[in-house]
Amino acid sequence: MANSSIFDIITPIMVGPSSSHTAGAVRIGLLAGKIFGSNRPQKVHFKLYNSFAKTGKGHGTDKGLLSGVLGFNVDDTRIKNALDIAKELGVKYSFEYAEDYNRHPNSVDIIFYGREEDDDAQIRVSADSLGGAKVVITNINGYQVNLRGDYHTLLLIYKDKPGMIYRVTTLIQDFDINIASMTCDREAKGHNASMSICLDSPLTEDIINSIKTISEIYLIRNIEVTK
Amino acid sequence: MKPTTTFAELAELCQKTNKKIYEIAQEEESSLLECTEQNVRKRVQETLKAMQEAINEGLKSDEKSASKMVGADCAKLKKYYEKNEGLFSQPYQNIIKYALATSEQNARMGKIAACPTAGACGIVPAAMIGIGTYLKVENEILINALLTAGIIGRIISEKTALAGAVGGCQSECGVASAMAAGAVVEILGGNAEQIINAVALALKNILGLVCDPIAGLVEVPCVKRNPFLAIHALTAAELALADIKSFVPADEVVDVLKQIGALMSPTLKESAQAGLATTPSAIKITEELNKTCQK
Prior knowledge:
B: 2-methylcitrate dehydratase PrpD
């Protein structure tokens, strides 16, 4: 809880009106967009829960989430016009509002579709806005994760097999990069699994290319911290 | 270096090293962020610039927020001062205009600097820049003042979260007012003891303030509360500059802020379940807004 820097007090410089419901929404959208990948999605659906659903309109939570997905940061004055900008860019979007008190008061599911005609989601991301513009991605495609955007993070989805964690972490260690924390989850033994690894310094192109050579990995995302 | 976590420690350190509070603040940040003190000041300048821009943009606009509850009042105040002298002098007028301008800018989705939160974003810049503009002080003095405000907020946040949902509005606008009081004392050449007294005096007088925003939005009463609490900070600053002491020291007042926050009913902590948020006028607008939201 304790803030250690005065910049936690006198920033962020952000588009209002709420650090949790506007700036937090943008940060969730940005992280989710990076998880989706480097291309812009053609269609994206947002399911807002609880306080996000109830007070979201007045706080611009919808515009914030969409802005993040479009790659705008918390201080981008285009946030206010995000709905129109998405239309101009050809990004289809829809919003749904729900109550589920098993979920965090400020939470959202973001469902990405690669192409407009797709019915099957390519990526599903769930996230909570924790207050003070701090956020956490809690779930990706059904796998539990704990991704806060405060560390450089390597995200992998792969076929569960003995030695996978060892192979990946050894490659990272070979380049002398320290692992701050990691979260792993799997569907079932021998099925799909996920790994998110928080790092003290960013990965180089070389390490990512070496990790890409592991054939059991389906999805690899290198999410760097941006200031 | 280990950052200071209490006002007593800060006062002692200032006395021992013969340094100003802002100098301690920039040293601590430089060590924490592993950058030069000059770079710390550069980052503070970015916030100062954003604050100034929010005031300028806010003064130009009369656009309402999405809910239409707030947004056109700074324009009214400006018009009033064009035709009337007002009761008080120019810095007072600047300060309430700037606070309203910034807060309305936040409500209409304009760019602001959260300080310490978005809902309280008008208080510190209005007090600091209002006084600074009136006295025509150099930019470096305003950076010193914002560093002072920053370390005040940080030390309070070491004990309690600065969020309405945790401690009510006393932890957002109340803390902003204490930060502003310290910043103004710094601009006016006060010493560390006077700055810390200003913090205690401002905070002590705002204890118990609840967070009961209509429809859960950062609008009513938040927007108009910002000018009130910017002026509240000036009272604390002037008392402190006269060497008037808070009988209860700043650290003890912060403990009480935390205690009252914990004792405060959850219905009055940003949940819109009591207070102004459940008045007949609030219920009416909340129902109207819910209809448009669920569509």
